[in-house]
Amino acid sequence: MHVANVLYLTSYLVRDILWLRVLTIFAGLSLLPFYCNCSDHILWAPIAWNLLFMAVNSVQIAILLRERRPRRLDGPEQALYDNVFSELTPGEFRQLVKLGEWREIEAGTLIVQRDSVVHDIQVLKQGALEVRLGGEIIARNEPGQFVGEMSFLSGERATADVVATEASQVLAWSQESLNKLFDKKPALAYKMRGILGRDVVVKLRAHGKPVG
User: Fold this and answer.
1) Which CATH code fits 75-206?
2) CA distance linking residue 8 with residue 11, whole number of Å
């Protein structure tokens, strides 16, 4: 029984959900002899519950392993993963790509209008974008940078116009669909907010604004 408690305690200390589930299964297994010998009869109810918990954890472990399985992506997707989303598992990134939409944008297209409600968040795969305020260019977005991330993080309207200065390609998601996914996948939400936050920091530093 002490072994089981040590394993449960260790599982609460690890940060990786995969190892948490593995340790929980071993803790449950180590309790089975106790339930068989702690009384004059076998405690079938705790054994049944333990087996059920282990079955659920086993299924979740299989899902996690499938998501983490290294698998090559298509050309543009692999480059985007390597340059921007490498913090995610390949499975998590594939979920994002499946949820998103690749868009081809013509030069001169107004992608985001100042003071408008931003419904999408986009990452620039190739091309060039300008951020304009009152007709003045205040920033240029390079491939790998996001559009609409500040509105996504803050919930506020767009503070500037964003215009494509040449033919560009973006991967776009609706904020609504992303939020639904993040509600189901809190670990993915945590990682993505970190990626978006770093993008904001890079842009602020490029503008000479203090951060932190």
Assistant:
1) 2.60.120.10
2) 5
